[in-house]
């Protein structure tokens, strides 16, 4: 699969109240999940465009997180060059949240990502993934070398603001991040529907706008 992206430029910005003027909205990069495609992020893309954000959706090259993180790094660089923005917001679904966090933590993304939002991302692993080949989703296995490396030290490094959202149908342990993050549980949304679910979309918009839509927890680094 080749790397492709769709860049959608908003035609109008939401008016800010006179007491809180804001600059042009920063770009947003959306990252789909395991065996997904950019089409999975269409509803969320449309919502960010309506909010005035230049919005880009990456077509990941495969199911191997380091390769995906490298592709995200390339797209973020191109977005910054195209828009002139010094940094972007990064929103990932499912395994896409792991690839996005690897870019931030291991590939220098912390200095160029304003906000990291994950939806339904098994930050600490997903046991059924242990049955998959490593390059086909197996890196989500809790005991994988990839996850051991990703979760060593601070989960939330740098100046980036971190948020992690899950459905009530998903385990709380799986989405845990230490070092400081906004946590939100959305009732009753199946995993695959999260990127098009209005509550998840509203929460992502709030996080990118600088508001924690859930509860901010600052846990000690393990």
Automatic annotation (TrEMBL):
Signal peptide (UniProt feature, chain positions): 1-20
SUPFAM superfamilies: alpha/beta-Hydrolases
UniProt GO molecular function: lipase activity
The organism's place on the tree of life at top rank: Bacteria
Residue ranges annotated for the AB hydrolase-1 domain, each copy included: 28-157
Annotated InterPro entries: AB_hydrolase_1, AB_hydrolase_fold, Lipase_EstA/Esterase_EstB
GO BP: any one term: lipid catabolic process
Matches recorded under Pfam families: Abhydrolase_6
Keyword field contains Glycosyltransferase: no
Keywords of this entry: Signal
Protein known as: Triacylglycerol lipase
Organism: Pseudosporangium ferrugineum
């Amino acid at each position: 699969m080749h790397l492709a992206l769709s860049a959608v430029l908003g035609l109008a910005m939401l008016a800010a109240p006179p007491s809180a003027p804001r600059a042009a909205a920063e770009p947003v990069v959306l990252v789909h999940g395991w065996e997904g495609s950019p089409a999975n992020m269409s509803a969320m893309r449309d919502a960010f465009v309506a909010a005035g954000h230049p919005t880009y959706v990456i077509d990941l090259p495969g199911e191997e997180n380091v390769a995906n993180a490298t592709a995200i790094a390339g797209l973020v660089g191109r977005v910054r060059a195209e828009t002139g923005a010094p940094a972007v917001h990064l929103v990932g679904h499912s395994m896409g949240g792991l690839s996005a966090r690897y870019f931030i933590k291991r590939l220098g993304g912390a200095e160029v990502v304003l906000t990291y939002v994950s939806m339904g991302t098994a930050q600490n692993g997903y046991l059924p993934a242990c049955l998959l080949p490593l390059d086909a989703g197996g890196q989500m296995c809790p005991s994988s070398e990839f996850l051991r490396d990703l979760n060593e030290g601070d989960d939330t490094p740098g100046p980036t603001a971190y948020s992690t959202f899950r459905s009530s149908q998903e385990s709380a342990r799986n989405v845990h991040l230490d070092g400081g993050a906004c946590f939100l549980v959305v009732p009753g949304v199946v995993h695959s529907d999260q990127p098009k679910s209005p509550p998840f979309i509203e929460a992502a918009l709030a996080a990118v706008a600088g508001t924690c839509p859930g509860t901010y927890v600052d846990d000690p680094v393990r």
